[in-house]
Write a structure and sequence with these properties.
- The chain is an alpha/beta fold and 314 residues long.
- Helix content is 36%, strand content 14%.
- The protein is globular and about 65 Å long.
- Its EC number is 6.1.1.-.
Length: 314
């Protein structure tokens, strides 16, 4: 078996639908095409949004589709102690700090500076609490992006996975999308590591889990692509290796919105796994099956096609 480790990390806010099956199939094919390991991680760190029984339903759907992990699933809800350990380390190094700002205050500060917030983009944090809380209680904890990027620029140490160019522009490469860039300090600012409601933020949890599980290749939906530079910075700050990234096409509704549980996406039919897989393979640009086959035969067919498409032969 190769050193490749991939993962599928669904949030148990409902069963798998056509869009999430695309990411599951792509990550499975990517691992299997080079003889690697494939893991499932249940991202249930946001407990209030999780639906009872959804994790078990997702695992049954994956099994019906022949997508079986090589180890028992990891549940983020069991990992709070590990996340706290990492946050404490960043605080001790001056790379994280408490923040007292509400969203309304952040929006007001951005508006006062002339910033126009575009829909579906991050609100760049204006750095209000970098100098201290001024006697106010902490609501959240943030990564000191500006400080860390300045350290990297001064040392010239950007490590594997990305390069920090002029004026803080971070460059990295996506296996499907190609060359990417973002100025994290300017476009995102000091991003949240632990939220005001006490829950762990996605950025911290996913970076720590990928590092601890030895994930070498992250294959996920294109809607998460702009999270990558934040995660690359955090990985580097924690001394974790940077995985390779591949962001898959999104399945959209007729009006162009991303297909999601919030948009009423129906769950995949476990009684028709071959049909569901065929639709996911089509969304990934894989060739159709030459004839009706079993799930196992279909997966082998698409595995070979994936290896050819992304040069991931064993």
């Amino acid at each position: 078996m190769s050193g490749h480790t991939g993962r599928f990390a669904p949030s148990p806010t409902g069963p798998l639908h056509a869009g999430s099956l695309v990411a599951a199939l792509a990550s499975w094919l990517d691992a299997r095409a080079c003889g690697g390991r494939w893991l499932v991680r249940i991202e249930d760190v946001d407990g209030p949004r999780c639906v009872p029984g959804a994790a078990e339903h997702i695992l049954r759907q994956l099994n019906a589709c022949g997508l079986e992990p090589d180890a028992p699933p990891l549940y983020q809800s069991t990992r709070s102690g590990r996340y706290q350990q990492v946050l404490d380390d960043l605080l001790a190094r001056g790379l994280a700090y408490p923040c007292a700002c509400t969203r309304r205050e952040i929006d007001a500060a951005l508006a006062a500076s002339g910033h126009v917030h575009a829909a579906h983009t991050a609100r760049p944090y204006p750095g209000t609490c970098r100098a201290g809380l001024q006697g106010r209680p902490a609501r959240a904890w943030r990564f000191h992006t500006e400080k860390y990027q300045a350290q990297l620029a001064a040392s010239g140490d950007t490590g594997p996975g990305f390069a920090l160019g002029a004026a803080g522009l971070l460059h990295w490469s996506d296996r499907r999308l190609g060359a990417q860039q973002q100025n994290v300090a300017l476009e995102v600012g000091d991003f949240v590591l632990r939220r005001a409601d006490g829950l762990w933020a996605y950025q911290l949890a996913v970076v720590v889990d990928d590092g601890d599980q030895g994930v070498t290749d992250v294959v996920r939906g294109a809607d998460l692509a702009d999270n990558t530079p934040r995660q690359l910075l955090l990985q580097h700050a924690l001394g974790l290796p940077a995985p390779r990234y591949l962001h898959t096409p999104l399945v959209c509704t007729p009006d162009g919105a991303k297909l999601s549980k919030q948009h009423g996406a129906p769950p995949i039919d476990e009684r028709q796994p071959l049909q569901a897989l065929a639709q996911a393979a089509q969304a990934l640009g894989l060739p159709p099956l030459p004839a009706p086959r079993s799930v196992a035969q279909a997966l082998l067919w698409w595995q070979q096609a994936w290896a050819h498409l992304y040069n991931r032969a064993p």
